[in-house]
Amino acid sequence: MNDHGVFLLSVGGRPAGTETFDIRSTGDRVEAEAKIELRIEQEGKVLEFKSTPKLVLNSALQPLTYTWSQKGPQSSQLEVDFRSPPTKTRYRTVAGGDDRLDFELPKDVVVLDYNVIHHYQLLVDRYRRTAGGKQTFRAFVPQEAMPGSLEVEETGPESVEIEGRAQTLRHLLVTTELSRIDLWVDDQQRLWRISSPAAQLEVVRKR
Question: Domain of 192: which CATH number?
Fold first, then answer.
């Protein structure tokens, strides 16, 4: 399941940044990491952020450790250890604080962190390990310290435009208590497009 690529992000129809990601299988481990550069407009000012998430999983795609750091006007760091219950989180806050929280999470929890796009590729890989249909997963958003659940189901093939070219892709629908996220993947299960209407977020994979 090795994969490497670049996602182009836009919010409200405007370019918002890029994510260069790398997913590598090494023996009994899977390592997924990225370099994310975002330009966000707040109160008439353009703010630039750079973040580097890294998720380590076992061969069954169960999370082991997760780290995330952000540099910019608001810099912070996050560490999560899933290896033995309870899951332990440590968050070094923007204000310089050191918050620690524990969570009772299942071993097979899906990590979907805020503004980390390639985590949806790992969700697709988890979904494809069982035979289709509607599947329910427990999920965890580390930056928001938020456990929850989501459902994934495939709705069939669709013609989708990627950088000006039509491409037939398979449509997966992800639903949570608060939102709906649309994913489109090719026959190799590679993620090519994401749409989150509630967040006005559109993501396409660079060819």
Answer: 2.50.20
